[in-house]
Amino acid sequence: MTGTNDGAPVVAVDVGGTKIRSALVCGRDQVGEAGWRATPREGGAPVLQAVRAEVEALVASSAVRPRGVGLACAGTVDRDRGVVVAAGSTLADWSGTRLRRALEPGLGLPVVVDNDCNAFASGVAADDGGSLLAVMVGTGLGAGLVIDGELHRGRRFTAGEIAHMAAGESVGPWCGCGLPGHLEGIASGSGIDRYHAHLTGQGAVGVGVVAQRYRHGDPTAAQVVTAAGAALGGALAGLAVALDLDRVVVGGGVIDAVPEVGEIVANRFDHALPPTLQRDVRLEVSPDSATAVLRGIARQVADTTARRPGPEGHAR
Questions:
Q1: Pick from 5, 19, 301, 315: most CB atoms within 10 A?
Q2: Rounded to whole angstroms, how far apart are CA atoms 311 and 316?
């Protein structure tokens, strides 16, 4: 995985459930000042229109014509076709959206689309041929998987979907797929909020409030935060062994908002690893996963356009 070449920048866009973030990425991973707009709550066509407006504004602001556009978004993504195959409840009416077909002709630029966790993995991967799992803890839970230096998506584009792993503790059908007992049901933002609501009987209060209560010594909040970090850390340790990983990188909105979760994850990970691996496999907490996502999808555009130029520089 290489960074963008000197010269023409890449337009990088991260389509999230609440925000659409974007920036020009120049040279070797130089992410410019990121702008953002709220993601339309209606989903579907309004989100696509907002993405188009964000891209067009960045193209117009660039001193030179960009070499391409990279879109990172939640959901199961067929990167070859630029289609969102399936999406959870984060973005309404998003499944089946043909992003490349909708944007590429009007822009006249190659468009690369991938899952946001895959983009995160591309953004934190090193050019050392190593293997890593890049985990994003947000409203939901997901990961991108790099094996021997190559991003691995799988035949069904679900490689790295750790949300549906069995968890030791989970209450209710809170995974995005609607089934109980999954890791997302306890170790994601939505899982933390709902587990806390279940224990208190007070209804959902938001991850931020749970974090504040945790810091003030509230025992219920402590139980929830500790359970989330321990469940995720233990699961990641098992994956590190099974996949023979060199690194595990954890980031996302929940880690940014509740750093204590990251600390618990790292502690549980270290203690769950077999002693023979504790010096060789490391877990890192990403300080700025949002920028890493933009950097990663820009890397993908640069690599794709350099490897597979089509007519007028389009990647296919």
A1: 301
A2: 9
